[in-house]
UniProtKB/TrEMBL annotation:
Transmembrane segments: 23-44, 122-145, 157-174, 303-325
One Gene Ontology cellular component: plasma membrane
Domain Type II secretion system protein GspF: 192-320
Cross-referenced Pfam families: T2SSF
Recorded topology in the membrane: Multi-pass membrane protein
This protein's name: Type II secretion system F family protein
Organism field: Thiohalocapsa marina
InterPro entries: T2SS_GspF_dom (IPR018076)
UniProt keyword terms in alphabetical order: Cell membrane, Membrane, Transmembrane, Transmembrane helix
Amino acid sequence: MDALAKIQAAFDRLLADPQTLQWAFIAGLGLLAFLLVLLIAQVVRGTRNPVQQRIDTFAGNLGNPAAGATREAAAPPGRVAPQTRRLLERLGRGLVPQDVGKRSRMEARLAMAGYRSPRALFALYGAKIVGFVVLPVVVALVAYFSLSLPLNTELSMVIGSVLIGALLPDNWLARQGRKRQAALRRALPDALDMLVVCTEAGLGLNAAIQRVSQETQIQHPELAEELGMVMLQTRAGVDSRVALQDLAERTGMDEMRALVSTLMQAMRFGTSIAETLRVYAEEMRDKRLQSAEEKAARVSTTLILPLGIFLLPAFIIVAVGPTLIKAYEVLTRM
């Protein structure tokens, strides 16, 4: 306890000295500037040989045909510029955790957001480095040269920007995963209806999945991509049950897990897949109706706050305002 008290007292004395705080801030700013210079150097050196890039792509395709065939779909070029993506991969390659469990969890989160490339994990950690370095440098420069704030406030802003920059990629990834799940959830009822029509017309389950994947490419590209992955896995020799289980794990949706479980039970016990899909499609339709009714029931409660803030004062002014004006005129005449 005495040692902790001495350390705390020494720390308090350092904080009480403005000159010490100023030198600490300048040293931290210099360190951030040095890290920014290293980042710029990585940008300059980050342009890789196009021939080597092609070799890496073909090597990945040979090692995993299904993943290589859908790599462009898994990480569309429109999301991130190729040069930026390669830079992030180069920066984050050395920070990827070696723990298999943690690495698998991060890859599952990336797959849930639609990024299935083996290099997506490197890009994620590279984005963390950029947020950890660039944002604090910008905040420090703005606070030091533009804002006339106390030094303690500037240090707090820099520390807060470090935390925000480190956590921002994870929050963005979680938001992308939720958006993709919402898109898949909207597309699932239509896909189930098409699966019912295809299976009742005599197609097998794999052929029906392929047909639905082709028909939903324009309206529901996320679901078409996931179903296409199932077909690629089955063509590569993976058992259809395993491919369906991978579909449920990639999406992370309870509805998809229930659908996969229902299909696997139908295949195990030899029941009609068309009838099973029809029953499940009806259940999904009922759930959508119940969800819409719940949202409609919550509208009145949700509108209470905006009505009270915006409409009630205006109504009071219109209803009571003339009476108050007349009362004021009468009182002033007396």
